[in-house]
């Protein structure tokens, strides 16, 4: 075996000093320019331990300002099933007080984004009417609800609620109180927008009238802040693609100009959320700059903006060129809560760079604590007491053998190495990275290689890590290795037999009817040379089929995309990519056939009309289920010669890359914990005597 022993390497650089200069924001001072902007965490008001620990970790990692996500100000702003924070009344206060203490303990400022969801609320749990400037369907076309047009009395009530929430936020100790006017998830935005505001009183019509409520709420909050707290505005300056949407060089600009000096801080972005949180597949780092850079030309107040910033050089240039005063980060702060501290220490190679995949975002749709492909410890700070930088040190200095250098194997090995153990990794291919090495070659996914590179770098820092490529060990070699623990992380392969999410039976006719290509074939370059018609059949429903289609089209083939489900790349709605995927396929000339299933005899059928579709092809790129490579694990288990045998990642069950990384991390923690890990559960305590069981 040809192993590589990595050597120690240190980096030290002070070019980034300006990122660590304090900045005055109204009456408070941010200790540095790293600003963890508000973002959905999935730990809402009813999972406070997880929420607090997640935010405190960012403060510990050096984010000078740590913001709390949308905090509903009143029961008529009920966003359930998206777990938001709440400040409905005083009973919510203790949680916030603890949260502020946890953030400030590390010297950071604590900010809270007070918000009312307006026409994006559902109010299903409270049963109250949804409110808005006008009577109209709510801003989710698939939800059968409408908003009630607010009378002036309702506007007054809203202002009072907002003010009371601001008073409570101040009482809790927050340094920065936000007014939220972004993402279309805001009553104030509903008033600003011509699309939703059809009023003809002093709150509708002209721009001055439409921003009246915005201005009033800023003034109300300034009253509460009374020069002791800063008041921030989160405002989307543009709504690309939206009918009547704000444009950054038209009304978006006029609004900033009109309110320029009123708040103490401008936190600016673009709307809706799919534009604000674009994936790396469809945007470069800093993609919001062309929209937001005008803001600093109109105000003397500090400006924070976002754009998946991970490059320290880029951050410095944003400050030096006067585009921003503070570097905002949601996803970069999720992927690496310690990004600021690493830059400060000159440990740039150790930054766990966001890959822009939006798995974090997808969890919001499910209303569960967020997950991250790069950071397996996110949401586990309290639940499992996992720290992103320091795995629990076990006393022994054991040596471990990991088979497979995909995301699961690499994460497992890197975590064991950080705990001071010895790890040997045997990988059968000539390259580490497993599926991320393959997938990062697909159009738009180059950033995904960071999953591999971050972990390889970790291994490179240790003299105790040995990586052997081109090494497929035999059962006997593994057994005679005498490792304390053996971890099998052999991954999975794409099936070619017709089994997919909607079809559980193999379909032998496919093999005889078509030349079948799997994603593995395409990614490894096994593509027909001469231009031909290819059907890409998507029974996976995430990103892969759309990328295989793009890849084949780029190779000069004529591609049709076919799927049995009613939507294109269904699950990508959760990563906010679906619209971009559809546009990109349309622009590339790829025909799309939803609701079209492949039958066991290899023909295609419309699932609504039940008529046969006249689709013909000689080559079928089949994107269905995957099959775990379990043979090695199964044999070792059966022979029973290895006492401590684990498996991790796709070889347990195929899933998304994030799940493989988490699985590899969990196996390492289990090994370090002597075979077990403890988890905490958020528990709601019942109030005594609160149930009347008698029938009235
Ligand atoms: P995961 O996402 O679970 O890490 P991947 O498929 O990305 O899974 O990675 C698995 C890695 O394991 C691949 O690089 C693959 O080449 C490697 N592998 C599979 N079987 C063996 C084996 N028997 N010996 C060594 N490496 C293996
Ligand atoms: Fe970045 Fe993906 Fe992690 Fe989200 S899940 S923070 S996009 S790496």
Characterization of the model:
Helix 1 runs parallel beside helix 2, helix 3 (152-172) runs parallel beside helix 6 and helix 15 packs parallel to helix 17 (450-460). The chain is of the alpha/beta class and 696 residues long. The model is unreliable at 1-11 (pLDDT under 50). The chain is built from 24 helices and 29 strands. Strand 13 (303-305), helix 11 (312-320) and strand 14 (326-329) form a beta-alpha-beta unit. It folds into 3 domains: 14-365, TIM Barrel, CATH 3.20.20.70; 399-491 and 629-673, 3-Layer(aba) Sandwich (Rossmann fold); 494-627, FAD/NAD(P)-binding domain, CATH 3.50.50. Iron/sulfur cluster is lined by residues 331, 334-335, 354-360, 372-374.
CATH class of the largest domain: Alpha Beta
Q: What small molecules are bound in this structure?
A: adenosine-5'-diphosphate, iron/sulfur cluster
Number of strands: 29
Report the biggest beta sheet as strand number plus sense, adding barrel if it closes: 8 strands, parallel, barrel
- Characterize the quaternary organization of these chains: single chain
* Rounded mean pLDDT score: 94
The CATH homologous superfamily of the largest domain is termed Aldolase class I
Q: How many separate helices?
A: 24
Beta strand %: 15-25%
Count of discrete structural domains: 3
Q: State the strand order across the main sheet.
A: 4-5-7-10-11-12-13-14
The CATH architecture designation of the largest domain is: Alpha-Beta Barrel
CATH topology of the largest domain: TIM Barrel
Could you list the spans in which at least 5 consecutive residues all have pLDDT below 50? 1-11
Cα radius of gyration in angstroms? 27 Å
Helix content: 25-40%
Structural class: alpha/beta
Question: What overall form do the CA principal axes indicate?
Answer: globular
């Amino acid at each position: 075996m040809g192993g590589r022993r990595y050597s120690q390497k240190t980096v030290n650089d002070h070019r980034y000093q300006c990122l660590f200069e304090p900045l005055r924001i109204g009456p408070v001072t941010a200790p540095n320019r790293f600003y963890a902007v508000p973002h959905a965490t999935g730990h809402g008001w009813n999972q406070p331990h997880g929420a607090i620990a997640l935010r405190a970790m960012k403060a510990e990692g050096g984010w000078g300002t740590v913001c709390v996500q949308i905090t509903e100000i009143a029961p008529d702003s009920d966003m359930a099933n998206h777990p938001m924070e709440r400040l409905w009344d005083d009973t919510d206060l203790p949680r916030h007080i603890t949260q502020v203490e946890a953030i400030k303990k590390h010297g950071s400022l604590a900010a809270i984004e007070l918000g009312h969801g307006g026409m994006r609320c559902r109010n299903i749990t409270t049963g109250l009417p949804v409110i808005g400037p006008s009577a109209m369907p709510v801003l989710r076309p698939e939800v059968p609800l409408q908003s009630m047009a607010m009378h002036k009395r309702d506007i007054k009530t809203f202002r009072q609620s907002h003010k009371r929430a601001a008073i409570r936020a101040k009482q809790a100790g927050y340094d920065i109180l936000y007014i939220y006017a972004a993402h279309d998830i805001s009553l104030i935005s509903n008033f600003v927008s011509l699309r939703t505001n059809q009023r003809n009183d002093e709150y509708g019509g002209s721009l001055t009238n439409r921003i009246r409520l915005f201005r009033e709420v800023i003034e109300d909050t300034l009253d509460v802040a009374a020069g002791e707290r800063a008041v921030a505005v989160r405002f989307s300056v543009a709504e690309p693609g939206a009918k009547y949407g704000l444009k950054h060089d038209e009304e978006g600009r006029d609004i900033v100009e009109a309110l320029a000096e009123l708040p103490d801080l401008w936190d600016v972005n673009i709307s809706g959320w799919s534009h604000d949180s674009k994936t790396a597949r469809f945007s470069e780092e800093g993609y919001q700059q062309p929209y937001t850079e005008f803001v600093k030309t109109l105000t003397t107040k500090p400006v924070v903006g976002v754009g998946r910033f991970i490059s320290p050089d880029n951050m410095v240039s944003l400050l030096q060129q006067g585009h921003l005063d503070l570097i905002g980060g949601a996803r970069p702060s999720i992927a690496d809560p310690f990004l600021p501290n690493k830059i400060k220490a000159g440990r740039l190679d150790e930054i766990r760079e966001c890959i822009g995949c939006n798995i974090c975002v997808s969890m919001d749709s499910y209303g569960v604590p967020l997950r991250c492909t790069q950071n397996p410890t996110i949401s586990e700070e309290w639940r499992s007491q996992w720290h992103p930088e320091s795995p629990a040190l076990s006393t022994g200095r054991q040596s471990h053998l990991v088979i497979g250098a995909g995301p699961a194997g690499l994460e497992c090995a890197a975590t064991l190495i950080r705990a001071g153990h010895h790890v040997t990794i045997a990988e059968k291919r000539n390259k580490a990275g497993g599926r991320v090495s393959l997938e990062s070659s697909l159009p738009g996914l180059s950033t995904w290689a960071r999953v591999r590179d971050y972990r390889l770098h970790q291994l490179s820092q240790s003299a105790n890590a040995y990586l052997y490529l081109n090494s497929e060990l035999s059962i006997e070699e593994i057994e005679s290795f005498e490792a304390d623990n053996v971890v099998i992380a052999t991954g999975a392969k794409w099936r070619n037999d017709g089994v997919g999410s909607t079809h559980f039976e193999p379909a032998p006719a496919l093999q005889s009817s078509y030349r079948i290509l799997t994603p593995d074939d395409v990614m490894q370059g096994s593509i027909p040379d001469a231009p031909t018609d290819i059907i890409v059949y998507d029974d996976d429903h995430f990103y892969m089929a759309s990328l295989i289609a793009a890849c084949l089209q780029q190779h000069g083939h004529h591609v049709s995309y076919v799927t049995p489900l009613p939507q294109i790349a269904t699950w990508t709605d959760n990563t906010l990519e679906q619209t971009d995927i559809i546009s990109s396929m349309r622009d590339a000339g790829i025909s799309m056939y939803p609701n079209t299933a492949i039958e066991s005899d290899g023909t295609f059928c419309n699932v609504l009309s039940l008529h046969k579709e006249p689709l013909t092809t000689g080559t079928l790129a089949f994107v269905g289920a995957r099959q775990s490579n379990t043979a090695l694990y199964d044999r070792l288990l059966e022979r029973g010669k290895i006492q401590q045998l684990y498996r991790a990642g796709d070889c347990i069950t195929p899933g998304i890359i994030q799940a493989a990384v988490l699985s590899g991390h969990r196996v390492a923690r289990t090994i370090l914990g002597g075979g077990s890990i403890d988890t905490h559960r958020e528990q709601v305590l019942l109030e005594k005597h609160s149930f009347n069981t008698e029938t009235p």
